[in-house]
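Journal club side-thread
Mid-discussion, someone asked how the predicted structure for our own chain would compare to the paper's figures. Pasting it here so we can look after the session.
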Amino acid sequence: MDKKVYFFMIVSFVVGMVELIIGGILDLIADDLQISLGQAGFLITIFSLIFAIAGPILLYMTSNIERKKLTLMSLVVFLAGNIVTVFSPTYSIVFLGRIISAISGALLIILCLVMAPSVVEPRYRGRAIGVVSMGVSGSLVLGVPIGLVIGNAFGWRAPFVLITILTILAMIGL
């Protein structure tokens, strides 16, 4: 199977991780930004809402753009959203970073699921989709615990640094 499928899996893992990672580090974010736990929790809600709404709309709006180019552009935007989150001095800037990440992440998941089968032989298409889906599933099981461990050890921004590094690696691999 083409190695690009595994890079698509990394992208799907990272996007899934970004969505839910806040759950494990709510108290760290709330303390650092001097906000309530409810406000910190809303960072998960806004990501999920934007993600759900943006995916179909962006897929339609970008249907004329070549998929590889669109994937790389979306990764750049996703990277930017996470960099904004890492360096954000205030809640409103973190909020903005989450919106940017959610918009691009919604498109990235769809693109990974569409492109992975196109880079393998026809008999491996189902497996390619399964590998990409494994990235999302893995993020649900491992993303929050990884974020919690890294966040508790190095601060709430550290998991987003890891996400930034993984995003750059995925960009290089694609």
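Post-session note: The mean pLDDT is 95.
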